[in-house]
C-alpha cells in the first residue's frame, strides 16, 4: 500500500479499476516520464504519437460506449486521468480534450452519421479533435461569445476567433461553438476546410508539454450536416465542460501525488545538520498536512466517480471537486518545492513543472471564482453571475 493512502481508500476500488490504473501507470512510466522534462523545456510534445499509443490502450473516450470506445466506468476513467497527470498535466489534457470534450460533444449531441464518421478514428488516436469555446475576449463568460454562424441556403457560414484551444494545431476536427439567430449551436468542423486558420500559441510558462492554439474562422462554409443536431443552447457546451471537469478532479491528484512521492524520497535521503530532512519536525508537519489534504481529495474524487457511475452526478458537485482538488494540488506542489529547497526549481525534479502546470489547470474549464459562484448558487438559490 502506498504510504500516501492513509485511509486505505484503494481497498474500495474494484480489481478491474486497479488493473486499469496499473496499465496506465506503466504506460506513463515507459512513454512519458523518461521524456517529459525535455518536452517541457523545449515546449513541444509528440502528441500524435502519444494519441495513437493512448488509443491502442483504449484511453481515448474510454468512458463512452460504442463506436470503438471502451465503455469503462467513470471511476476507471478518473484513475486513468490521475496516472496521466502524475506524468504531466499537458499529457492528461491531451486525453481529456480528445475524449471528454471533442469526442463527448459528438457522442452526446451528434447525429448517427457524425458519430460513425468521427468517433472510431478518434478512439483509435488516428484522428485528433479539439473543443473551441473560449474566445480572446470571452473566457469565463461564454454567453458573450462573438463567433457567429449564419445560414446561407442549406449551408452554414462561420466567422470568429477561438483562443487557448488545446490540440488546435494538430486537430483534424474542431468542435466549434457559435452564436446563431436561434441561439448557441455546435459544429464539427474539419480543420482542412477553407477559411480555417490555426496559429500555435508559443512562449507559455505552463503546460509546455501540450499543444495550444488560436483558431480563426474567416467565413468558413459548412454543409448542414456539420451542425451537431442535438447541441441546442449554451447548456450543450457547458455539459461537455462538466464531463471534462470530472477528469480534472482526478488528474490534479496525480500531479500532487507525484510531487509528494518525489518529496518523500528526497526528504528521506537529503541530509542536513546530521540527519535526513524527513526527521525534522517542521518537515514532518508539512508532509502530514499535505498527505491529509491529498487523502481528502482522493475521497472526494472517488465519491464523485461513484455518483457519475450511478448517473447521479450534478454540475455543482463537480465544481466542489474541481475547486478543492486543483486548489489543494497547487498548494501541495508549492509546499513540496520548499522542502526541496533550491533543487525544487530544477528541471531534474518534477515539482515546479507540476506547480506551473497547475496554475493553468486552476484557470481552465472554470476558474476557482466561477466554481465558488456555482457552489454559492447551490447553497443560496441566488445567482451572483450577473
From TrEMBL:
Domain Acyl-CoA dehydrogenase/oxidase C-terminal: 233-379
Keywords, ordered alphabetically: FAD, Flavoprotein, Oxidoreductase, Transit peptide
Domain spans labelled Acyl-CoA oxidase/dehydrogenase middle: 130-220
Cofactor: FAD
Domain of life: Bacteria
Pfam families in UniProt: Acyl-CoA_dh_1 (PF00441), Acyl-CoA_dh_M (PF02770), Acyl-CoA_dh_N (PF02771)
Keyword tRNA-binding listed: no
GO MF term set: fatty-acyl-CoA binding; flavin adenine dinucleotide binding; glutaryl-CoA dehydrogenase activity
GO BP term, example: fatty acid beta-oxidation using acyl-CoA dehydrogenase
Domain Acyl-CoA dehydrogenase/oxidase N-terminal: 14-126
Similarity comment text for this entry: Belongs to the acyl-CoA dehydrogenase family.
Name this polypeptide is given: Acyl-CoA dehydrogenase domain protein
Species per Swiss-Prot/TrEMBL record: Salinispora tropica (strain ATCC BAA-916 / DSM 44818 / JCM 13857 / NBRC 105044 / CNB-440)
Amino acid at each position: 500500500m502506498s504510504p500516501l493512502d492513509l485511509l486505505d481508500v484503494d481497498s474500495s476500488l474494484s480489481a478491474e479499476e486497479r488493473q486499469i490504473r496499473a496499465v496506465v501507470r506503466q504506460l506513463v512510466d515507459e512513454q512519458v516520464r523518461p521524456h517529459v522534462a525535455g518536452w517541457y523545456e523545449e515546449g513541444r510534445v509528440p502528441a500524435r504519437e502519444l494519441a495513437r499509443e493512448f488509443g491502442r490502450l483504449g484511453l481515448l473516450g474510454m468512458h463512452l460506449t460504442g463506436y470503438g470506445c471502451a465503455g469503462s466506468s467513470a471511476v476507471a476513467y478518473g484513475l486513468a486521468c490521475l496516472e496521466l497527470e502524475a506524468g504531466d498535466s499537458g499529457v492528461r489534457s491531451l486525453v481529456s480534450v480528445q475524449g471528454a470534450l471533442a469526442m463527448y460533444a459528438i457522442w452526446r449531441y451528434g447525429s448517427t452519421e457524425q458519430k460513425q464518421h468521427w468517433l472510431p478514428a478518434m478512439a483509435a488516436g488516428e484522428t485528433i479533435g479539439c473543443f473551441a469555446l473560449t474566445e480572446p475576449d470571452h473566457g469565463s463568460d461564454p454567453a458573450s461569445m462573438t463567433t457567429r454562424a449564419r445560414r446561407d441556403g442549406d449551408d452554414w457560414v462561420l466567422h470568429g476567433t477561438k483562443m487557448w484551444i488545446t490540440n488546435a494545431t494538430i486537430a483534424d476536427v474542431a468542435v466549434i461553438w457559435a452564436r446563431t439567430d436561434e441561439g448557441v449551436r455546435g459544429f464539427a468542423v474539419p480543420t482542412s476546410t477553407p477559411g480555417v486558420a490555426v496559429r500555435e500559441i508559443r512562449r507559455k510558462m505552463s503546460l509546455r508539454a501540450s499543444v495550444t492554439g488560436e483558431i480563426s474562422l474567416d467565413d468558413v462554409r459548412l454543409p448542414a450536416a456539420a451542425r451537431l443536431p442535438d447541441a441546442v443552447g449554451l447548456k450543450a457546451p457547458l455539459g461537455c465542460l462538466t464531463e471534462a471537469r470530472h477528469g480534472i478532479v482526478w488528474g490534479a491528484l496525480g500531479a500532487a501525488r507525484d510531487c509528494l512521492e518525489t518529496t518523500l524520497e528526497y526528504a528521506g535521503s537529503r541530509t542536513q545538520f546530521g540527519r535526513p530532512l524527513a526527521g525534522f519536525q517542521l518537515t514532518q508537519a508539512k508532509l502530514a498536512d499535505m498527505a491529509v489534504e491529498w487523502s481528502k481529495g482522493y475521497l472526494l474524487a472517488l465519491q464523485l466517480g461513484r455518483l457519475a457511475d450511478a448517473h447521479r452526478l450534478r454540475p455543482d458537485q463537480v465544481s466542489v471537486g474541481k475547486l478543492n482538488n486543483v486548489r489543494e494540488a497547487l498548494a501541495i506542489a508549492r509546499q513540496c518545492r520548499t522542502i526541496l529547497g533550491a533543487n525544487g526549481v530544477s528541471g531534474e525534479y518534477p515539482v515546479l513543472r507540476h506547480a506551473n502546470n497547475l496554475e493553468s489547470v486552476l484557470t481552465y474549464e472554470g476558474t476557482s471564482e466561477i466554481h465558488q459562484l456555482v457552489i454559492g448558487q447551490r447553497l443560496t438559490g441566488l445567482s451572483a453571475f450577473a
